[in-house]
User: Which sequence fits this backbone?
C-alpha cells in the first residue's frame, strides 16, 4: 500500500512541534552518517532548534576543517566568518521577537491598538500569548500543589500537637482527681452526738 503524500506545514502545537523536531533531527543525522559510511563522503550538518540550541555532525570529527574546505571550494564566499553570520542572523531574529513582544506588552497594557499589527504579527502574538498562558497555568498549578502539601504537613503537625496536649490534660486531670479519690476511699463518718449521750 502506498502512503499518501504528507502535506508539509508548521506544527501548531508546541509540544508536538518539539517531538517532531527531535525525531526528524535524529533521522537527519542518522541518514547523514549512513551516507558517509556507504559512500565515503565527508558530511557536515548544522541544525539550530527554535530555541537556538546547536546540533551538529561532522563525519570526519572536525566541523572547522569542513567549513574551511567549504569556504575554499565555494567561489564568492563572503569573508565574514560563519560564526559571525550565524550570530547576525540570531541577533536579527531576537530583535524581531523583542520588537513583537514589546508591541504585545503595549497592547496588553492598552497603550497600542491591535489594528496597528499585521496579520502575521497578530498570529505570532496569539501563539506567544497561548504559550505564556500555558506556562502561567502550569506555574499556578505547581504553586497550588506546593501550598496543598504545605497545609497537609501543617495539619499533621497540628494534629500531633493536639494529641500531645490532650494526653497532658488527661494526666493533669488524673493527678487532680487521685487525691480526692483517696480521701473518699478512707471514708468519713459523721459524729453522732445524740448516740454518744444515749450510751
Assistant:
Amino acid at each position: 500500500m502506498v502512503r499518501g503524500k504528507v502535506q508539509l506545514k508548521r506544527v501548531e502545537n508546541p509540544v508536538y512541534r518539539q517531538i517532531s523536531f527531535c525525531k526528524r533531527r535524529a533521522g537527519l543525522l542518522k541518514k547523514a552518517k549512513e551516507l558517509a559510511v556507504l559512500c565515503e563522503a565527508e558530511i557536515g550538518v548544522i541544525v539550530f532548534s527554535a530555541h537556538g540550541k546547536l546540533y551538529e555532525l561532522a563525519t570526519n570529527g572536525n566541523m572547522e576543517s569542513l567549513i574551511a574546505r567549504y569556504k575554499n571550494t565555494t567561489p564568492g564566499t563572503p569573508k565574514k566568518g560563519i560564526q559571525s553570520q550565524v550570530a547576525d542572523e540570531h541577533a536579527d531574529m531576537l530583535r524581531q521577537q523583542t520588537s513583537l513582544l514589546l508591541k504585545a506588552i503595549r497592547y496588553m497594557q492598552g497603550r497600542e491598538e491591535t489594528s496597528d499589527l499585521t496579520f502575521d504579527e497578530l498570529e505570532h502574538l496569539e501563539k506567544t500569548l497561548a504559550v505564556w498562558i500555558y506556562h502561567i497555568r502550569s506555574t499556578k498549578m505547581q504553586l497550588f500543589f506546593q501550598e496543598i502539601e504545605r497545609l497537609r504537613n501543617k495539619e499533621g503537625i497540628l494534629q500531633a500537637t493536639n494529641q500531645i496536649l490532650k494526653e497532658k490534660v488527661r494526666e493533669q486531670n488524673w493527678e487532680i482527681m487521685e487525691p480526692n479519690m483517696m480521701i473518699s476511699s478512707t471514708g468519713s463518718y459523721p459524729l453522732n452526738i445524740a448516740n454518744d449521750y444515749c450510751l
User: Anything to note?
Assistant: The helical segments are 14-39, 63-73, 82-108, 119-186, 193-198. Strands lie at 44-48, 54-58. The chain is about 70% helix and 5% strand. The chain has a mean pLDDT of 79.
